[in-house]
Predict the 3D structure of the following.
Amino acid sequence: MRPEAPTVLVAMSGGVDSSVAAGLLLEQGFRVVGVTLLMRPQQSHQAVTWCCASGAVESAQAACHALGIRHEVLDYTDAFAASVLQPAWREYRAGRTPNPCVHCNVHVKFAALYQHLQPANARYLATGHYAEVVHGDAPRLCRAAFAPKDQTYFLFGLNRDVLNATLFPLARLSKDDVRALAQKWDLPTAQRPDSQDACFVDADGHFSEALRHWFDDAPIPGPICDPSGRVLGEHRGIHRYTVGQRKGLGVATGQRAYVSRIDAHTHTITLTIDETDLRSAALLTDDAHWISGSAPSFPLACQAQIRYRSAPVDAVVTAQGHGLHVAFSHAQKAITPGQAVVFYRDDCVLGGAWISRALP
């Protein structure tokens, strides 16, 4: 008797990537179930516009129908608020710039699918991320073949058990390849636009201000100063600013200016007109997460990436207190507290950590 094909739970966001991921798994002989995580509360603040959630369930249902697979919806609105939105707002209030996508992947999306494997009698979970996983006793998370869409930066927090249960069908495809397959299969998601960086925004397109509205928190004004401490104006909340920002500063300096420092204790924003003030040779982090499950031997020579769109840079990592010290081969611009620094070797993720502050 022929053994039954293993079942895969595919995270269906309603976009083209997850739809094609499901289609590829069907072609490979898996039994596929589409799963959409409901993360948008039924009652939403009038000042908040949701992006990735708009029509997601309906679009995912249509894609599953076109593929001939079952579609399920799991309610994770409470988990999303507790594990993503609340921590993000705390970070903004502390003068840091959060990366909610990392928290959402680790604590909501992959966690939800992994927890649902046994009840669904499924062996694997899959997503439409551009990344590659190599299964084994020491699983590896590696960059996608199509570098412009590689998303491993957002996945550094996944543990070995989750990685060994994960499939990334788009690992070796480009975005054009994906859209071509969607058109070939006549999927309703073929022309759906790519998801936005933020899950929801306010009327002006700001994620941080949308969070403030969401939690009904009053903005705390404070001074905008130059490096000497001279007051240039007043802001409407430090959550509106990030290190390196040069637009929407709230004051006119007559020259191109950048946010160089955010002081959450005094609610002060410091601007500089000297780009060298933004450059740092090293940084400190909070606790780190390692794909292997344990810290490597230090000092660690690797490549470090300080934001999603930044190129990785040669670095040396050492332990310092409860966190890490990361020294770069050359100075980096606008190292941002609250963002992740992710460590790579041979295009595979070693781990990552949250940036606490930049060093000269």
Notes: The two ends are 67 Å apart (CA to CA). Residues 67 and 185 are 8 Å apart (CA to CA).
